[in-house]
Design a protein that fits this description.
Distance between the termini: 40 Å
Structural class: mainly beta
Largest sheet: 7 strands, mixed
Helix content: under 10%
Order of helices and strands: EEEEEEEEEEE
Number of strands: 11
Number of helices: 0
Radius of gyration: 14 Å
């Protein structure tokens, strides 16, 4: 089993900075994709940013130029920074990872519980 634990959500002022963290723990042999999605009320869950197939990074157009995704040396913790934050960034942010747990098996997709980000002055 793999657990993804997000932290860093809360209330952010427009124009401010947001930093989220996600730590993956458990039976992990290799992580192929790890990143962040978000879901605003009444909208579908959408990709924000992610590491894909190694070191390739993808960003949604809505956060390009404002978001930075990074990870630690173990590649089990990813960070997302958005600066400056806009009201459109308000959403529940979910961490996701495709994890290989055993040689010979396929990758399994995991999701965190989500962390709420509110944007208000």
């Amino acid at each position: 089993q793999v657990h993804l634990v997000e932290s860093g959500g809360g209330l952010v002022r427009p124009g401010g900075s947001l930093t989220l963290s996600c730590y993956a723990s458990g039976n992990i042999l290799l992580i192929r994709i790890m990143g962040w999605y978000r879901q605003a009320p009444g909208k579908e869950r959408e990709l924000v940013a992610a590491f894909d197939n190694g070191d390739m990074i993808v960003y949604d157009d809505s956060v390009k130029g404002r978001a930075t995704i990074a990870r630690d040396d173990t590649k089990t913790t990813v960070f997302l920074k958005i600066d400056p934050v806009t009201p459109e960034d308000a959403a529940v942010y979910y961490c996701t990872a495709d994890v290989l747990q055993r040689v010979g098996e396929g990758y399994t997709n995991y999701w965190g519980q989500g962390t709420q980000v509110n944007v208000s002055s």
